[in-house]
Amino acid sequence: MSITPRVFSGMQPTGALHLGNYLGAMLQWIAMQKTHECIYCVVDMHAITVWQDPKELVDATRRVTAAYIACGLDPKRSILFNQSQVAEHAELAWVFNCVARLGWLDRMTQFKEKAGKDKERASVGLYAYPSLMAADILVYRATHVPVGEDQKQHLELARDIAQKFNNDFKENIVAAGFADGIFFPQPEPVITGPATRVMSLRDGTKKMSKSDPSDLSRINLTDDAETIARKIQKAKTDTEPLPSEEAGLKGRPEAENLVGIYAALTGESPGAVLRQYGGGQFSGFKKALAEVAVTKVGPIGAEMRRLSSDPVEIDRILADGSARARAIAAPVMHKVKDIVGFIRS
Ligand code: AMP
Ligand code: TRP
User: Fold this and answer.
1) What is the set of active-site residues?
2) pTM of the predicted structure, to 2 decimals
């Protein structure tokens, strides 16, 4: 069981996927299919760390699956499945709960943000969330994890867990046939999408997020052309014209974000975008940005709607992916049991 390069990543089936998910993570996922064995997951077990209406969770899981495929994920080439169908994730997460330290989890900024002021009322699952995330990755002994900037801290924790597990069980790992004492690899974050942190259209200092109460703050992948154009037209800006050079974007978060989105969608650099639009008013630039966004996002939404009309086919794809995922995860979990000292039959 040597360690081979393998990609794992996931998104939560909560709310609608938006341009931040697409530019920050999805484009990188699609690109990596060409060079790596890839496993992409709809993390429904992470979703229930905050309350989800069961019927809505079923729909959202299918919707995110449709979005993955509409964006270009190929379910034949890559493994595409929902987390709860592969029980090994939960099994390994328990072992990791006993490896990770309270002090490590106490530092997680996402928990602090999501739990808010009343942390006594947050679920235990929300607190242990990064431990499950580490299990998602390591149950496949995955080596590369393409994510947006906001997941960096969770990835560092996954690396710490992998290392502590390898250290704590070193003797047994060697006895299990891993002469170098390394059972879990150190998974590497791949944070190289064209826009690793897309900001809200209403506030350039907050990230674009599914959970923002204002729908005007984000472009959803299912938005139609008119909605996309309206949201961009209403996007917050400042009163200065656009600068001609990238340095002029400093301290102007809304301008920086819109230019960054344009650049990411067209594959140009922000400098090149400003050479074309610098000195002009936002209104002209916003029209051009709306056109670019409609051209890229419009077809994805249309394809999502087409795929979503056949839930039976989506469920079949998830079942097939789950079986393939299980085939990789089960032997890893067997080894973990041997290493930890669990009797198995
Ligand atoms: P989530 O929506 O939290 O399940 O995130 C799914 C993926 O999209 C993760 O890799 C995130 O890092 C990425 N992502 C979410 N929001 C943004 C954003 N505003 N900008 C860039 N990447 C993002
Ligand atoms: N926590 C990630 C997010 O909210 C989703 C996720 C769960 C994930 N497990 C993962 C991402 C494993 C990468 C690898 O975006």
Assistant:
1) 114, 207, 210
2) 0.94
